[in-house]
Amino acid sequence: MSTLRKSLAIALLPISMSFASIASAADYVIDTKDAHAFIQFKIKHLGYSWLLGRFNDFEGTFSYDDKKPTESKVNVTIKTASVDSNHAERDKHLRSEDFLNVSKYPTATFNSKKITENGNGTAKLIGVLTLHGVTKEITIDVNKIGEGKDPWGSYRAGFEGTTKFALKDFNIKDVGPTSQEVEMYLSIEGVRKP
Amino acid sequence: MPKLKNTKDEYGWVSISLHWLVAISVIGLFILGLWMRSLSYYDPWYRLGPDIHKSIGIILFTILVFRVLVRLFNPPPAPLPSLSKFERVAAHGVHLLLYLLLFCIMISGYLISTADGRPIEVFNWFSIPAFVTNIEHQEDLAGEIHYYLALSVIILAVIHALAAFKHHIIDKDNTLKRILGLSKPSQ
After folding, report:
1. Where does the Cytochrome b561 bacterial/Ni-hydrogenase domain lie (chain B) (predicted)?
2. Which of A81, A89, A176 sits opposite B113 (nearest CB)?
3. Is residue B7 part of a domain?
4. Contact B112 A89 (CB under 8 A)
5. Which one, of A164, A146, A152, A125, lies nearest residue A44 by Cα?
6. Could you tell me the domains of chain A?
């Protein structure tokens, strides 16, 4: 009898362990399926205004525990060909060798390395961005928007992030003295994995 | 002197004019097309080049439609009797292929600029609306087709011109002269 109980306990052990890991840091899938996540960019046009655009096709995951936010991890892969600035001729040019060169570099990736808390609900997310074949460390300022149950039986958590970098750092063509830097705005909602 | 319409031996002025108008326009559009892609964003021609390229392209399309109608209702003169069977078939095939390529180039060019639903403005004179916007990766696909077919039509036009020179210089026949309106009526 006792051997049966013992083997049952051993058999159930992995299940209880997996419950424990969910409780500490849950894994989330970024909700690109239902478009509750956005990757936008803006760059100065001639220095007179902002040109806005976005990447329509990307996917990613993150892990997050509000007790230990610095242990969070984020991984995102962007399909560079999905660049959309609301102008087909410009998008065609952005996809060409002059800019994103999407046939040679079809994806851009971001992988987090480190998170430091600012103490006021915001954090700095440090990670490596691979874009246009160049891998460089960037820092994203992150602000948590909220988390909780959704009305359809899942659990969601959402953040926004901003960052900027020089096009030159990623070997992307110079488009003029007032347009050296591109700013990114990220709005990310994740659905907790069941 | 040739007449207005084609006869069985000679090209008429309408066909001769259309031939050279289309030839000059196509070569001009090809050079403009390559050049405008190389311009920097701050070049004054960065916007003007594509505007002119598209406007002339649309007008050329209407001219080419007119040219096809002329060809159908007033066929070109018969091939010169000195031509071999191969030359007749090759010449006819190249002519038809040139028409086909030009139409495909114009349609693909139109599909690039109208891919997002924007119309094509023709010299601030009138605009052509977008009819097809739902092909996947439309502007990229149409762009590739437009580029490679444009290269093809230029290569084919060079072959077409070399053949005309061959007839003029080696065979010393009327082939080149009659598209210039310089052929003497055959006795």
Report:
1. 11-181
2. A89
3. no
4. yes
5. A164
6. 24-192 (2.40.128.110)
* A130-143 average pLDDT score: 96
Select the residue of B41, B42, B116 nearest A87 (Cβ to Cβ): B116
Q: Print pLDDT tens along chain B (187 aa).
A: 678 998 888 899 999 999 999 999 999 999 999 999 999 889 999 999 999 999 999 999 999 999 999 999 999 998 888 889 999 999 999 999 999 999 999 999 999 999 999 999 999 999 999 999 999 899 999 999 999 999 999 999 999 999 999 999 998 888 898 999 887 655 3
Mutate to test the interface with B, among A56, A83, A89 (most CBs of B within 10 A): A89
Interface check for A175 against chain B (CB to CB < 8 A): the answer is: yes
Domain count, chain B: 1
Q: Is the minimum CB–CB distance between A173 and chain B shorter than 8 Å?
A: no
Phi, psi of A30 (to 5 degrees): -65, 130
Residue B117 lies in a domain: yes
This model of the complex carries an ipTM of 0.80
Task: Decide if A178 touches B, using CB distance below 8 A.
Answer: no
Dist CA A173 CA A176 (whole Å): 9
B79: containing domain: 13-180
Does B29 reside within a domain? yes
CA–CA gap between residue B115 and residue B136 (Å, rounded): 10
Contact yes or no for B41 and A95 at CB 8 A: no
Q: Quick one: how far is CA B133 from the chain centroid?
A: 25
Structure tokens at B148: 């490679």
Residue of A nearest to B40 (CA): A175
Q: Is residue B8 part of a domain?
A: no
